Amino acid sequence: MAPTICVVGTSYVGLSLAVLLARQHDVVAYDIDASRVELIRAGRSPIHDPDIAEHLAAGGLRLTATTDKEAAYRDATFVVVATPTNYDERTNYFDTSTVEQVVQDVRRIAPDATAVVKSTVPVGFTAGLRERLGTDRVVFSPEFLREGRALHDNLHPSRIVVGDRGPQGVAFARLLAGAALDDDVPVLLTDSTEAEAIKLFANTYLAMRVAYFNELDTYAATHGLDTRQIIDGVGLDPRIGMHYNNPSFGYGGYCLPKDTKQLLANYAAVPQTLISAIVAANTTRKDFIASEVLARGPRVVGIHRLVMKSGSDNFRSSSVQGVMKRIKAKGVEVILHEPGLDDDTFYGSPVVSLEELKARSDVIVANRLVPELHDVEDRVYTRDLFGND
Length: 389
Description:
This protein is of the alpha/beta class. The chain folds into two domains: 4-190, NAD(P)-binding Rossmann-like Domain (Rossmann fold, 3-Layer(aba) Sandwich), CATH 3.40.50; 226-381, 3-Layer(aba) Sandwich (Rossmann fold). The protein contains 14 helices and 16 strands. It has a six-stranded parallel sheet with strand order 3-2-1-4-7-8, sandwiched between helices. A hairpin with a 2-residue loop joins strand 13 (345-346) and strand 14.
């Protein structure tokens, strides 16, 4: 019998998976947000992802969307959990309450279904949840997606990791591999705790690489050196490579800040220095960027965009927000241009048009130098060297 799949949560992870699998299987997308559900029913994407938007608009997907939990779970073979797990600074732990609630509801409504957790969780979470609920029908499978390219990355996955080596893990891995457009996608079946560690260590490595090239840039800027020449020379070593090396204001977005902190918390009883340094490096970089901007003596600083990545509409935990706070703490007026904001202010700073930003700002802070700023390039502060993410 062909599986029926329910996906819980319709942000980047959940909606991209729902669209991916609905190309071949019956999929129900469940969300508590009625406005998101209505958009999906109308063939429109509630998130910025061109591939998702194209697939929804074209139709032909075996996809339904609902706010009815009972109906969504009742006939499911797999329930994919893609709800948010924000990091709680007070507890040094992801807030996994939404994941736990979904799994408990699945056990009650569809006890034969397998819950597949795609939300990022602490190392050891799945094994603990299985023990508490007395079931082995909970599987963890990490996602490796970019915001704005989530469906693309599901159609062309770098690897598929499922934290279950039994029949249900094999079956879910086959679902993902069968939905991909590429042949011979690497598939790794592991135990659940190892799969959780893979996710956190992978993201922390990416954060480390961002921090490394940012600190290289800080050194070069402090000593009047040409950062580009140094990075070009370092990157020609094939073990290092010319990728993911563009200086920025720090790593940000939804995943890297919280995942590095969670991994550090998991190291509580384990000797380490590198993981804590990766977390601390992001704060140090923001301090440096803010001091560089303030050294120009501006009366008004303009912030061009909050988003971290091209093609994304998400600016949660973007590094430039930390730079803004430091500049404002010194009494300097900050204005902001961000088309993705509907409000007139953002944390007390006026949200203005691009024209007003250019007219009023003594310094324009931009994580990436884009064509619309070329006419005021002499007032732009950026560390962008390569024009990419």
